Structure formats: C-alpha cells, structure tokens
User: What shape does this take?
Amino acid sequence: MEEHKDAYSFMPLKHRQVMATGFALKYRDELMDVERQIKGIAGNSSDDDDKWRNNQTKFDEVRELLTRRWNLLNLMFMPSDANMNRFKEINFRLETLCRLLRDRMLRLKQSLPLVRDAYFDDDYELEGELRFSFNDENSVLKLDDDHYCSDFCRMIDIIHTCNYGTYWECIERISPNSHILDDGVSWNEPPFYGRPEFNDIIICHAMHNLSDHMLYSIPDILRLNDFWAEVHLTFQSITKQDGTRYIH
Assistant: This one.
C-alpha cells in the first residue's frame, strides 16, 4: 500500500473500493491466521483464563500480533458509503462527548464554592475521562459485513484487555487546564493520511488516539458500541500527625 499511496490518493472511489476488495482477498487468510495465533495465547472467549496478561513475554507477543492485525485490517478497509457514514457518526460522537466532558467540568468547577467544606477540604482534583468499555458482546456492533472474516468481538475484547490498566485505558483524559485538542484542524494522520475518503472529515483527537495509539483498526472502530464519559471531583484532606493541615 505504501508504495502506491500517491497513486491511490488520485484514484476514483470505485477504484479504491475495488482495491480494498483485492486487499481483502489477498490478506484474509493471513488475518485469520494472526487471529488464531492471538487466540492460542489469550483464549477463544472472554471466559478463558487471562493470566497471559501478567506474563510479559505473552503480553508482548499478543501486542505484536495485534499490530499486524491492525495493519492488515486498515489495508482491507472498505470505503463504502455505509462505512464512511458510520465513521463520520462515530467521529462526531467522540468529539461531542469530549466537548460535553469539558463543559460539565467547567460547570462543576464553577459550583465549587457551593460544595466545598472548609473544615475538610484542603485541595481538590477535577478530571474528565472518556473510555471504551468492553462489558459483553453487546459492546461490539454486529454489522452485516463478511468482507474481513475477523472475529471482531473477541479481538476487541483482547485489545481492551491489553489497554486496561495502562495510560491508554482512557481514550481521553481532560483536566480544567488541559489544551483543547479539537480546534477545527483534522488529526489526519495514519491510518487516515493519504486516503482521500477522509480528507473532508475533521478527525477528532479521540479518534486519533483510538486508531493510532490503542490498536483499534478502522473496521474495529466502526463496531465500538460502549463509550463511557466520566467526570471525577475528589476533595482531599491532608494533615500531619500533629493535625497541621496542607491548604492549597
């Protein structure tokens, strides 16, 4: 794909769709083999033992295989009207959730004088988090699409397990003083860069994190169906043995 990127950028949509079909036929068997290897380590279902997660050698092997899978599925992605419309909807939803998180945090910060307790509160922390949560098979949409022959539900479960407990457990972490990363300029970076079907979309930062840092391929992202947005306000009382208080 890399060597044909310039030519691909000027291809009509129909030709790019034909190319995606060709990539699917070319790489489908390799994709299925990669997923078999992943299941050989992580198990065939979420009920299987996840001790592999605490074995660094096995964990690294799964991540390496998931990276191969990410590359293959991005090559195979079919830019159909239905897929592109769904992508735009998810991108809009993610950007909206981040904006709502920031707005909710601002309102909560403005209300602090009403809820702070001078007898207890020495300091506070205010943070917003957006994450994808895999709870069960309903967390992954089942689309009428046999183009990829991927076990999306199990693979997304395993990706979620790999990210859990790491910095990338959250798609976004927002504080009251953090920079606004969605400023109207598209995060048009790999795997979107060089693909003209994404040129007219302002790709949000959350989408960039999902697709570039968290091992979710574009076809995976179209199936993610359980986004949690949370705002955390923590009041802290900090004292020494003699009762001396730290007041921020």
About this structure: The helical segments are 5-9, 13-42, 56-76, 81-110, 112-115, 152-163, 205-212, 218-221. The mean pLDDT is 90. Residues 99 and 182 are 9 Å apart (CA to CA). The first strand starts at residue 123 and ends at 132.
